[in-house]
Specification:
- The protein is α+β, with helices and mostly antiparallel strands.
- It has one domain: RelE-like (YaeB-like fold, 2-Layer Sandwich), CATH 3.30.2310.
- 27% of the residues lie in helices and 28% in strands.
- The protein is built from 3 helices and 5 strands.
- It has a 5-stranded mixed β-sheet with strand order 1-5-4-3-2.
- A hairpin with a 6-residue loop joins strand 4 and strand 5.
């Protein structure tokens, strides 16, 4: 699946670019984040995301209705949205944010 970032900070972490200042996340969270994004990119469609129980892919409710979450670890979730390219009807996962699920 194609991945696009709406969050420059997370894109820098994923690509390994330097980030100014003190990082928001510790190195373990960053590595788990990279691993989760790699798993998502290896999957062909959104329907297949539901098969990977470890990702805990689910639609969000309330203020985040229209977005989805993917588990990074026990505390952190990726907030993503889904877009379809009109020409090839290929789904694109858009990384929106990485949040602490229990704060």
């Amino acid at each position: 699946m194609k991945i696009r970032f709406n969050n420059d900070y997370l894109e820098a972490f994923y690509t390994g670019e330097p980030v100014k200042g003190k990082p928001k996340y510790n190195i373990e969270v960053i590595e788990k984040f990279r691993k989760a994004v790699k798993k998502i990119s290896a999957i062909d469609s959104v329907k297949e995301l539901y098969k990977f129980k470890g990702l805990n892919f689910e639609a969000l409710k309330g203020d985040l209705k229209g977005f989805y979450s993917v588990r990074v670890d026990y505390h952190y979730r990726l907030i993503v949205s889904i877009e379809k390219e009109e020409i090839s009807i290929k789904e694109i996962i858009i990384i929106e944010d990485l949040t602490n699920h229990y704060q």
